[in-house]
Give the backbone structure.
Amino acid sequence: MSVNLHDLSSPLEFWEYFEDISKIPHCSGNEGKVREYIKEEAEKFNFETKSDNAGNILVIIPPKKEKKSIIIIQSHMDMVCEKNKEVEHDFSKDPLKLKVITFDGKKWLTAEGTTLGADNATGMAYSLAIMKKIHKGDLIFENLEIDLVFTVSEESSMSGALQIDKDLLRSKTLINLDSARENVITIGCVGALLTYVEVKIDLINVNQIEGKLQPLEIQITGLLGGHSGGDIDKGRPNPIKLIAKILKRLNQNNSIYVKSIDGGSTHRNALPREARAIFYVKNEDIKQLKEFFDGLVSEIKKEYSKIDPNIEIALVKLESNPEDFLYSKEFQDKFLDVLNSFPHGPISMHPKFENLVHSSTNLASIISKTNRIKIDTMQRSFEKTSYKEISDKIIDLFKNADLKIKFRQMGGFGEWNPNFDSPLLHLTKETYEELSMENIIITAVHGGLEPGVFRLNFPDLDMITIGPTLDALHSPDERLDIQSVENFWKIFIRLLRKI
Ligand SMILES: [Zn+2]
C-alpha cells in the first residue's frame, strides 16, 4: 500500500522529500547516498554546497537582496535502523514501506515493521522544502541567508557534530530540527562521560573447596530497560544491581562461591534488561538456599510490581565442571560490597526545571572474562564537574575496597547549559505565542543533542531545538503526527521571517 502524498498535510514539498528520503538507505554510518541526494537537489537549483571530512554537508541559500544575517538550519542525515523480528527488511537497500495509521484519534505516518526514520528525516525534509520553495519564489527572504547543515552519525557517535568543519557553521545562530514535540522548545541538554573499570579477579580452583558442590545460575530477565537518559528517572530496577543484592544476601546466609556475573548490554544508551550469575554452593546447603532465594525473589517482585511488573528471576542447576575457577572468598566479599554500593539512577534534580534530572549514572553492563570483570557505565549531567565527580566516586569505590583495577574515563563533553536570555529563544517564544500555541514548554533534556556537541568547539552559538511531533522513536512503532507537520511548518516559517 502506498501513501497519497496529497492526502497528507501541507506543504506538499515536505512530503515529497520525506518520501524520497524514505527510499534511500541511511542508517548511521551509511549516509553517503542521502548526502549525494541533497547535493544533487541543491545543485539542480543552483545552490552552492560544501562538504567536510566528517561527511557533513552545507547548502547555502543566499538572500534575495543584501545579506544582513545568516541562520543555520541543522538536521542529521542518519537514522536508527530497527525492525520487528518477523519482518524481512534489508536496511542497506530496501525502501521503507510508508503507511498512514490512526492512533489516539490522530493520523500518523509510520513504516511497516521498521523504524520510520522521521528522526531526523523530518528535519531534512523541512530544510529541502524551504530550499525548493525559495527557488520557486514561493518563499522570499530579502536579507536572510539560510544555511542548511546536514550532519552524520548523530544516532551513534555524534562524530558529525563533533568534527564539523568551521567553514560549515557560518553563523552564531542555529536552529536544530531534531525535536519530537511540536509544542516544545528545547534549550539545553546534558553532557556525558563514559567510565570503564576492569577489575582483576583473585581466583581459586573449584577443587580447592572441600565438600561436594553444585553450580547454580541466577537468571534475571523481562525488565523494561529503556533509554539511559530519558528513562533514568522511572525508578526501574537495574538487573545487575538486583543480582548483586541477591548474591550478597545469599552469601550472608550460606557460603556461596561466585564464578561469574554478566548483564546489560554495551549500548550505554540503554538501561540494562537482563543479568545472570553463576555460583557454587555446598550440596547440603541447597535446600536452605533455595528457600531463602524464593523469599528474596518474592520480596523483589513485590517491591517492583508497579514499576517493572514482568521481572523474571530464575535459579537453574548447571553441570559441575572441575575446570571452573571461582572468586576467592576475600575478593568475593569485597566485590559484592562494591557492586551493592555502586550508584545507578538519578543523582540530582535540575534546580530550574520541574521533574528534570540534572545528573545521573547508568550501570550499563558487566562482563566476566577468565580473570577479570569489565564494567561499563555512563554519567550524564548539565555540569562538567558533576559527571566527573560521579565518575571519580565510582573509581574510589574500587580503590577503597583495595581491589586491583584499570580504568578509563572517556568523552566528557556535550553539555548545553540553558541560556534563558538567548535572543533566538525570545524570538521563538514570541512566534509560538503569536500563533496562540497552547502549552508551550521550554525545557532541556536529560539526553544528548547535537547542539551540546557543537558547543565544544563553538561555545558562543545561540541555539534551540524544535520540530514536529513524533512518537516511539528508535522503535518499529515510530510514527509522525501528520497534522503537526503543517502546524510546525507555519511556526517555522514565521520564525524565520523574524530573524
Ligand atoms: Zn534524532
